[in-house]
Amino acid sequence: LFGYGFTALQANYPKTAIDQFLKLKELDHEYTSLYLYLAKAYEEEGMLKESLETVKDGLKVDEYNKELYVYGGKIALKNNEPNEASALLQQAIAIDPGHVEATITLTNIYMQEQKYEEVIDCLKEVMRYGEEDPEYDRKLARAYHETEQYSDALNHYQRAYNFFKEEPDFLTEYGYYLLEDGNRAAAREMFRQALKHDPANVEIEEILIQLEDDF
């Protein structure tokens, strides 16, 4: 039944997959592997409420299944339930602080809600376990900037720069930070680099013209 359902899902027959996984669940509700794929099949059918309920059912059987927590978090987001999503993702990170997808998804929620202190606390905690990712530095840079912790912000902007130095959005954000910090020469260089990678960006061009007038 599991093989039948899995194959049907892979072949884009989610209704057939749902039928098989439900039969399997009725036979053996502790067959933990079925829950993730049943949830995915429900998602394919646009049945987000049922998908999330399936995740919760699976977690009753296997409370340490980090992939179910992460998947449930993403489904909750799709269902416009950010608090539910945050709770599920926090559980995934508690089980595995090295789960990059869970950490980035959770901190994306915090960033959207402008909960910058939560971003900092979350990322400092996972990095305490030796976990590193360029996206962590980028998020910490902005979070420290927004909370006016400028020296910490600069440290993480510098760390993130080597990885994101060809992304105009990052370069623009870094440029604005440097402007606010009073380093207009360095800001001008960041905006120059941003314009090089996004030459049609009128906003960056106007800022750069203003900065060029200073020199």
Would you write up a description of this structure?
- The chain starts with a helix and ends with a helix.
- It is built from 13 helices and no strands.
- Helix 12 packs antiparallel against helix 13.
- The model has no long low-confidence stretch (mean pLDDT 95).
- With 215 residues, it is an all-alpha fold.
Key terms for this structure?
single chain, 215 residues, mainly alpha, 13 helices
Topology:
Blueprint: H1 2-10, H2 14-27, H3 33-44, H4 48-61, H5 66-78, H6 82-95, H7 100-112, H8 116-128, H9 134-146, H10 150-164, H11 168-180, H12 184-197, H13 202-212
Quick rundown:
This protein has 215 residues and is mostly helical. It has helices at 2-10, 14-27, 33-44, 48-61, 66-78, 82-95, 100-112, 116-128, 134-146, 150-164, 168-180, 184-197, 202-212. The model has no long low-confidence stretch (mean pLDDT 95).
